[in-house]
Predict the 3D structure of the following.
Amino acid sequence: MEPRVLQVQPLDNFLLYLTFSNQEKKIFDVKPYLNKGIFRTLNDLSVFNSVKVMNGTIVWMSDIDLCPDTLYLESRHL
């Protein structure tokens, strides 16, 4: 099991600044997901910017989320 998300901050260009439970800070690029299924909703910046942490991962509108393992493994270090 990979570290879980403690904090999230939306950035420009559909990037997320994430702080994980092991104190690592990484950047996750959401752009590859924006044309897939329910993630299309995130093209609306007001929706994208409403991201929050819930149960160790991130969520939008409480029904769009990403696996915390994916967030950790596919994000890049600063």
Summary: Residues 5-77 form a domain with the NE0471 N-terminal domain-like fold (CATH 3.30.2020.10).
